[in-house]
Amino acid sequence: MWRADILTLYPEMFPGPLGSSLSGDALARGLWSLNTHQIRDHGRGRHRAVDDTPAGGGPGMVIRADVLGEALDAVSVADDPRPRLYMSPRGRRLDQGLVRELAEGPGAVMLCGRFEGIDERVIAGRDLIEVSIGDYVLSGGELAAMVMLDACVRLLPGVMGASASGEEESFESGLLEYPHYTRPREWEGRAIPDILLSGDHGAIARWRREQALRITRERRPDLRAASDDQPE
Asked: Is the whole-model pTM more than 0.85?
């Protein structure tokens, strides 16, 4: 079973959308597990404080190293093969390659920060891998963790109905996905391209490849495959 453990100050946010649709059905069928852990259980003093003012001054608060160290150790033992991930806007950008790599492993331990962030010493001391879902800042790491989990869980064996469902999607081949059509044949004066109704599977495959190349070059020229010298 693919196991996810989430360390957060707001465990009530989970499973949230992960309890619905594909991920929720897979959770109910035991294809993966989700456990949340309250960081404040390891807080200090009568009020279970988890944060303090930043060394050197500055705005906001920082989550303490001793609190997070204990919280992580309580969830992930020394021989736990799962990566320890810290959802952070300065981390490695989440992409389909990383998603597939995580989905093929045993699961993940995810730390969701709050406030100004966490003590830097925890990142080094507990070998945390920082991961970002985009170039923007959220109130905390919980929504980012949900995005990552949804992307991973849908790739687990038995989650999607057809094994090929995830193989031709955007980013799997370095390209954005080709356009899709279905009934009715014509809608508001717009018709399904004739090639898709031809029954010529080779021609259809070529058309889809050409469309994927065109869309990628137009919308995401930064993707590696967008610069391939292939005919449209």
From this structure: yes
For residues 160-182, average pLDDT: 75
Contacts of the segment 18-24: beta carbons below 8 A, 24+ positions apart: 18/146, 18/149, 18/150, 18/153, 22/153, 22/154, 22/159, 22/160, 23/149, 23/150, 23/153, 23/154, 23/159
Burial 26-55 (b: 16+ CB within 10 A, else e): bbeeebbebebbbbbebbeeeeeebbeeee
- Encode pLDDT of 136-168 as tens digits: 999 999 999 999 999 999 999 999 975 545 565
pLDDT per residue as tens digits for the range 42-55: 999 999 999 999 99
Q: CB neighbours of 123 closer than 8 A, spacing ≥ 6?
A: 86, 130
